[in-house]
Write a structure and sequence with these properties.
The chain has 200 residues and is an alpha+beta fold. It contains six helices and seven strands; from the N terminus they run H-H-E-H-H-E-E-H-E-E-E-H-E. The strands form two sheets. The protein has a five-stranded mixed β-sheet with strand order 2-3-1-6-7. The chain has a two-stranded antiparallel sheet with strand order 4-5. Helix 6 links the parallel strand 6 and strand 7 (194-195). The radius of gyration is 23 Å and the shape is globular.
């Protein structure tokens, strides 16, 4: 008599258990999506961007990697407050996504540092000039405007001795700090230069 009862109970509970697992799986999927996507900028986080960049670099022999740092971001936080800094990060994320369109993938590495991988870096110098102008546009905030600059370092991956994302990131980061140094002493070029030397 006990076995049929147990079987009936199991049959009744099975749909509920299955439904519970579906809800749990959906919750885990949503959490994973949030981890891969930065909630402030809307861009991929470092881990998600690394995976996307590796995939693009493997598939596109003219890929290029950009590293971007917002100049004057600390002053925005100090002067206007962290909410203003958040508005700047959000605007930068929207502008990077718009600039990339279908031709590249932007990501937020952390703080005010971003990275982009593009499938075709053939017109890199002209593209960087356009991107820097876009990122330097004022950000509307509480009836005023917040201004930041942007230092961009870039590299065509195929021109490196070691054509990998890691090497490209090092080279682009070095180029970005070179541009940032010129900005500090007042000699910012019209467009950030793309480096073709592998950083060591």
């Amino acid at each position: 008599m006990e076995t049929p009862i147990k079987d009936s109970i199991s049959q009744l509970l099975a749909p509920a258990l299955a439904g519970g697992w579906i809800v749990h799986a959906h919750f885990l999927h949503q959490r994973l999506h949030r981890v891969r996507r930065d909630p402030l900028s809307g861009l991929l986080t470092r881990h998600g961007w690394n995976r996307a960049a590796d995939r693009i670099i493997r598939r596109h022999d003219r890929a290029a990697v950009l590293v971007i740092d917002l100049d004057g971001f600390k002053a925005v936080n100090d002067t206007w407050g962290h909410a203003a800094g958040d508005a700047v990060i959000a605007a930068a994320g929207q502008r990077l996504a718009a600039w990339c369109g279908e031709s590249g993938v932007p990501g937020r590495l952390g703080g005010d540092e971003f990275a982009v991988v593009v499938r075709d870096g053939l017109r890199l110098a002209a593209d960087l000039d356009e991107l820097r102008a876009l990122l330097c546009e004022p950000v509307d905030y509480q009836g005023g405007q917040v201004n930041v600059g942007a230092s961009i370092g870039a590299v065509r991956v195929a021109e490196l001795d070691t054509p990998t994302r890691e090497a490209a990131m090092r080279a682009a980061d070095t180029a970005m700090y070179r541009v940032k140094g010129r900005a500090r002493d007042g000699r910012r070029p019209a467009a950030p230069e793309a480096t073709t030397a592998d950083a060591t």
